[in-house]
Amino acid sequence: MRLLHTSDWHLGRSFHRVNLLGAQRAYLDHLVETVRARGVEAVLVAGDVYDRAVPPLAAVELFDEALHRLAELGVPTVMISGNHDSARRLGVGAGLMERAGIHLRTDPVGCGTPVLLTDAHGPVALYGLPYLEPAMVRDALGAPRADHAAVLGAAMDRVRADLADRPAGTRSVVLAHAFVTGGTVSDSERDITVGGVASVPAAVFDGVDYAALGHLHGCQTLTERVRYSGSPLAYSFSEADHRKSSWLVDLDADGAVRAERVDAPVPRPLARIRGPLERLLDDPALARHEDSWVEATLTDSARPHEPMARLAKRFGHLVSLVFDPDEGPDRSLASYAQRLRGRSDQEIAEDFVEHVRSGRGADEHERAELRSAIDEVRVDDMVAEVAR
Q1: If we measure between CA atoms, which residue out of 285, 273, 337 comes closest to residue 311?
Q2: What CA dihedral angle connects 144, 145, 146 and 147, to 10 degrees?
Q3: For residues 379 and 133, is the Cβ–Cβ distance under 8 A?
Q4: How far apart are CA 160 and CA 4, in angstroms?
Q5: For residues 194-211, b (16+ Cβ closer than 10 Å) or e, as one string?
Q6: What is the pLDDT of residue 195?
Q7: Distance between CA atoms of residues 14 and 9, nearest Å
Q8: CA dihedral sign, ordered 37, 38, 40, 44
Q9: Distances, alpha carbon 170 to alpha carbons 39, 113, 218, 268, in Å
Q10: At CA 84, angle to CA 81 and CA 88, rounded to 5?
Q11: In this structure, are residues 317 and 270 in contact, taking their beta carbons and an 8 Å threshold?
């Protein structure tokens, strides 16, 4: 069976205030054409369909159009909700859509009930595991603890139990939205560390033939059977070196996996340039970036006059300007955003405690209290978001 594995569309998201709806539409055109031209037998969308719980109308309309086009092809689509989606909103009408071959899986309780497809070699069971927020699904799944590894493990126990009752030779696929140990992150994924450590081991997916993952924006292979498709578009400059694509997966009669990357259309390349303003304005080697979306980091010891306007005359798609002087007595002048980049809420809070106590960091008890407070705030935010 030939599967097309994609995820993290983030419909409605912009890039440094640049509207990406046209680029997202171009990707969905490409997806539909790939399904048609490459003989795809099922489409897998591993979460984060939208960028936020209440997406803009234009994003909803684009999603609706994509579902209609996939349904018209007669190719089943299995889709789960991610941590950016509102599971309840995304799942509205799921029963009706199922009749058209669009299978929305947004309820954690149903994770052990597969979508059953058949090809010339027999049945294939596709299990959709939506994003599992530990504090909100622990009881429903009967997990021993409210952390990511426990709730995903409990969900996979349901998958394996159902699979054990299927006819011998039934092949299996799981869609999941999670941070799996060994994956490489970027700046544009929303932190999911609520409930303690965010990552789960790849071994949690043992027992199934293929795990189609979403959440991390870089396309990557954790094992031959456990892969991230990544996002189809770059949503931060940390993704400048990503090759955006989907996985075309062939599931053989014995469950063996063969996978091929299908490149996604690139609306505009990304470039990060760095140096003193005058060099960035004059360096002929930078001419290749003049049509790119550009993040410019200025290393001048003093801020130049009107740098954004001057750079924009050469780089017409300059969208981000950062100051990071190479010299100077006080490196703390770096921007607040720079100092926080890549750091978790827990790390930021612990650094603050160390700062206000003149170098004495938080002890184990204090770190646990900080973690509990951060988790409580995040869960309250998620509950409020679902209620909106």
Answers
A1: 273
A2: -110
A3: yes
A4: 23
A5: bbbebbbebebbeebbbb
A6: 40
A7: 12
A8: negative
A9: 21, 14, 30, 43
A10: 50
A11: no
Spatial contact of 344 and 351, defined as CB atoms under 8 Å apart? no
Q: pTM of the predicted model, to two decimals? A: 0.84
Angle in degrees, 0-180, between the axes of helices 134-141 and 364-387, rounded to the nearest 10: 80
Output the six-digit token pair for 68.
Answer: 């209609």
Going 70 to 52 to 235 to 294, the CA torsion angle's sign is positive
**In this predicted structure, what is the pLDDT of residue 189?**
83
Res 290: pLDDT: 97
Cβ contact 73:36 at 8 Å: yes
Query: How many Cα neighbours within 13 Å face the side chain of 166?
Result: 22
User: What per-residue confidence (pLDDT) applies to 194?
Assistant: 44
3-state SS string for the chain: CEEEEECCCCECCEECCEECHHHHHHHHHHHHHHHHHCCCCEEEEECCCECCCCCCHHHHHHHHHHHHHHHHHCCCEEEECCCCCCHHHHCCCHHHHHCCCEEEECCHHHCCCCEEEEECCEEEEEEEECCCCHHHHHHHHCCCCCCHHHHHHHHHHHHHHHHHCCCCCCEEEEEEECEECCCCCCCCCCCCCCCCCCEECHHHHCCCCEEEEECCCCCEEEECCEEECCCCCCCCHHHCCCCCEEEEEEECCCCCEEEEEEECCCCCCEEEEEECHHHHHHCHHHHHHCCCEEEEEECCCCCCCCHHHHHHHHCCCEEEEEECCCCCCCHHHCCHHHHHCCCCHHHHHHHHHHHHCCCCCCCHHHHHHHHHHHHHHHHHHHHHHHHC
Which of 106, 102, 104 minimizes the C-alpha distance to 88?
106
209: nearest Cα among 160, 138, 146: 160
Contact between 100 and 71 (Cβ < 8 Å)? yes
Structure tokens at 45: 């969308």
Which stretches in the chain have pLDDT values below 50? 194-196, 329-330, 332-333
